[in-house]
From TrEMBL:
Keyword Hydrolase in annotation: yes
Keywords for this protein: Hydrolase
Higher taxonomy: Bacteria, Bacillati, Actinomycetota, Actinomycetes, Micrococcales
Superkingdom of the source species: Bacteria
Protein name: Alpha/beta hydrolase
GO cellular component assignments: membrane
Domain AB hydrolase-1: from-to ranges: 25-165
Molecular functions (GO terms): hydrolase activity
Source organism of this protein record: Glaciihabitans arcticus
Alphabetized PANTHER family for the sequence: HYDROLASE, PUTATIVE (AFU_ORTHOLOGUE AFUA_2G14860)-RELATED, MONOACYLGLYCEROL LIPASE
Family annotation (SUPFAM superfamilies): alpha/beta-Hydrolases
């Protein structure tokens, strides 16, 4: 390890562990952007009879803090997750579950630390590729529209925070969405540096353990073009859940619990 890597690891903040309950094989849960471990409120009760469930708040979200200098790249998110998991001193490989942006972080972690993970479960993964890499004109136009929309959200703070507050009030899962003054920097930079700029396809391809992908057919953030690439990989199994959107509602939670095993 170089002195730079050593220094980086020494100053990496540990993330907030929001829940550590149940007993049995370990399942670690990583939520997505603008959210917290509340994401898994429907899932954890389905697992704790047979698993030890550990829910982590990502850097800058939930009750986790972040250095003022954080740029919220996928590398920074993964490093903070790595440090937090290392602090748990787990003795056996664990199942790693990521939702939304958390699935991108989980995929990178599993690719970097193959001996740590026994199974990777990606829930509602926003797997995006550059529009120029998409052959289908409709899919290419859709991907371009997503990127323009994300750029608009990053550039219009008032609109974005007001819309997020409205959607949060309407959500069946309380406090599942937050974009506010408190986490604005984490939101904007994570969106730009971990979602818009991503290497999810190559990360998933390099993972050495079984990968389960679970998503709702009504999820507006899932790009079928990216999923079609991933589902061709031999170690990937895709589960589609009818009539579910991006949230881990009861129906999606049931499917995820089944994928975890």
């Amino acid at each position: 390890m170089s002195w730079r890597e050593w220094f980086t690891r020494k100053r990496t903040p540990l993330l907030h562990i929001a829940d550590d309950s149940g007993s049995g094989p370990v399942v670690i849960l990583i939520h997505g952007i603008a959210s917290s471990s509340v994401t898994f409120s429907e899932l954890v009760p389905r697992l704790v009879d047979k698993h030890r469930c550990i829910s982590i708040d990502l850097l800058g979200f939930g009750e986790s803090t972040a250095p003022e200098t954080a740029t919220f790249t996928i590398e920074e998110h993964v490093e903070s997750v790595r440090a937090t998991i290392a602090s748990l001193a787990l003795r056996a490989p664990f199942e790693l579950v990521g939702h939304s942006m958390g699935s991108l972080i989980a995929a990178r972690y599993a690719a970097m630390y193959p001996g740590k993970v026994s199974k990777l479960v990606l829930v509602s993964p926003p797997i995006y590729v550059a529009p120029t890499e998409i052959g289908d004109p409709m899919q290419r136009a859709t991907m371009s529209a997503y990127l323009r929309a994300y750029e608009f959200l990053r550039g219009n703070k008032g609109f974005t925070t007001r819309t997020a507050a409205m959607l949060s009030r309407m959500s069946p899962i309380k406090n599942v969405l937050e974009v506010s003054e408190r986490n604005w920097n984490a939101f904007v930079l994570s969106l730009q540096n971990s979602i818009e700029s991503q290497t999810a396809v190559s990360d998933i391809a390099s993972v050495r353990v079984p990968v389960e992908v679970v998503y709702g057919t009504l999820d507006p953030f899932v790009m079928t073009g990216g999923l079609r690439i991933v589902e061709q990989l031999r170690h990937v199994t895709v589960h589609r859940v009818d009539a579910n959107d991006h949230l881990v509602r009861k129906r999606l939670a049931k499917a995820v619990a089944k994928a975890i095993g």
